[in-house]
Amino acid sequence: MANPAYLPEVFIKATIVNFMVTQEGLEEDLLTKTVSILRPEDERMSRELVEEIARNDNVLAELEQTILSKLLETDGKEGYNVLEDNDLIKMLQDSKVKSTDIKEKKIKAEETNEKLVIEKQKFTSIAIRGSILYFILVDLVGIDVMYQFSLSKFAELF
């Protein structure tokens, strides 16, 4: 039901979830489907970039955690000097090199992602027209119940 009309007692005891499709949401979904069909390499590259950024973020977090745990192990030790701990200094140098490399990769990935978004936007008019068409078809139910369309069937036809 588009606008459910329940008693206030029902609203208090239940959670009403609105699963209605919005035009903007459908446009975004159709845009993604269009790009995945017409430019599958762009969609694949976009997924790979997201995965790479996530992996790099995890590596940075692991590096930070390793350094912090090493510092916590040595915290409060009698006669311990951080500057004399060659293992810690080597770990810090390695982490600096890795973090610099990861930051460079992240910048390149973000630049590539921006280019992919620009390419994706070229198909926006298709997605907008598809969304408008879906909502026109949904309104045909007002003429006759025979004209009912499901979103999944429309997406398949689209």
In words, what does this structure look like?
- The radius of gyration is 27 Å and the shape is elongated.
- The protein has 6 helices and no strands.
- The two termini are about 25 Å apart.
- It has about 160 residues and is mainly α.
- The chain has 2 domains: about 1-40 and about 125-158, no CATH class; about 45-120.
- Helix content is about 75%, strand content about 0%.
Concise overview:
This protein is mainly α. Helices cover 73% and strands 0% of the residues.
Layout of helices and strands:
Elements: H1 8-13, H2 23-38, H3 40-74, H4 86-121, H5 124-139, H6 151-157
Helix pairs in contact: 2-3, 2-5, 3-4
Label the structural class.
mainly alpha
Overall geometry: elongated
Percent strand: under 5%
Element pattern in H and E: HHHHHH
Please work out how many helical segments DSSP would assign: 6
Low-pLDDT stretches:
none
Question: Averaging pLDDT over every residue, what do you get?
Answer: 85
Strand tally is 0
Main sheet, how many strands, which sense, barrel? none
Gyration radius over CA: 27 Å
Into which percent range does the helicity of residues fall? over 70%
CA-CA gap between termini: 24 Å
Count of separate structural domains: 2
